[in-house]
Write a structure and sequence with these properties.
Distance between the termini: 39 Å
Number of helices: 9
Oligomer: single chain
Largest sheet: none
Structural class: mainly alpha
Number of strands: 0
Helix content: over 70%
């Protein structure tokens, strides 16, 4: 029964929404009923699916860039206290600065005709901090007794990194990846809104286009696809995280 409870609650919300729209005769352009949203979704799903694919590709490209940059900087910070002192404030500054505040600048720098670059860059910026924080925390959380054991055997920095610190950092890095993946999708969508250009042809652009034409049901349909996209990305990253942690634990 507990497993069915969320679905029952969701069904009741939809039924109440549908009944309120029909009984109160709410205009479709103001608030479409769930049946109107389902109809728009059925009619426009090929276009929305294509837009979701473009948004996903830009988000994943930004995530990959963030993984590389965050991993390198976290490794540098873990190896040097001076570097850590210099990089931590910068990473926090990136985290606390709203993406909508820097998005117009990134769009200008990338060029209005290259909106995809701006979207990818902003997805990377938003995903950077959880990846950097997770990697740095993991690389500096190795067992002190094992650290002393490696010192005793005169292990090189490379051996220490590959055999001690990276295995210790794996859970933290995977957790950062799980958070960063969701953040990358958010960053990509926000960047598409700010760019205001159809060049990227992502979900945010479809929402803007439908809103300008007062096709509110289509806007809701795009939001449904966007929510589904976020859930799929979160589920896939979570599955990969669990399998990687299980493999890592079994190999210990």
């Amino acid at each position: 029964m507990r497993a069915l409870a969320p679905w029952l609650a969701f069904a009741l919300i939809l039924l109440g929404w549908e009944a309120a729209c029909r009984l109160l005769e709410v205009p479709v352009y103001l608030l479409p009923a769930p049946s109107d949203v389902a109809r728009a979704l059925a009619e426009r799903w090929p276009l929305l699916l294509q837009a979701a694919g473009r948004t996903l590709m830009m988000a994943l490209s930004g995530l990959l860039a963030a993984v590389i940059v965050a991993g390198l900087l976290a490794g540098l910070a873990a190896a040097s206290r001076t570097a850590a002192s210099a990089l931590r404030p910068l990473a926090v500054t990136v985290q606390v600065t709203p993406v909508v505040a820097i998005a117009p600048l990134v769009v200008i720098w990338a060029g209005l005709e290259n909106s995809e670059r701006a979207v990818t860059a902003l997805a990377a910026v938003v995903a950077f901090f959880p990846l950097f924080s997770g990697a740095l925390t993991g690389l500096t959380s190795a067992d002190p007794d094992l650290e002393r054991l490696f010192d005793l055997y005169g292990a090189s920095r490379l051996d220490r990194l590959l055999r001690l610190r990276l295995p210790s950092a794996a859970p933290f890095m995977l957790e950062g990846l799980s958070v960063g993946a969701g953040q990358a999708v958010i960053g990509a969508v926000v960047a598409e809104f700010v760019a205001g250009s159809g060049a990227s042809q992502g979900l945010a652009w479809r929402i803007l286009e439908a809103g300008n034409r007062l096709r509110t049901a289509e806007m809701f349909a795009a939001l449904v696809v966007l929510a589904a996209l976020g859930l799929v990305v979160h589920a896939l990253i979570g599955l990969a995280r669990r399998r990687a942690l299980a493999a890592w634990s079994g190999a210990r």
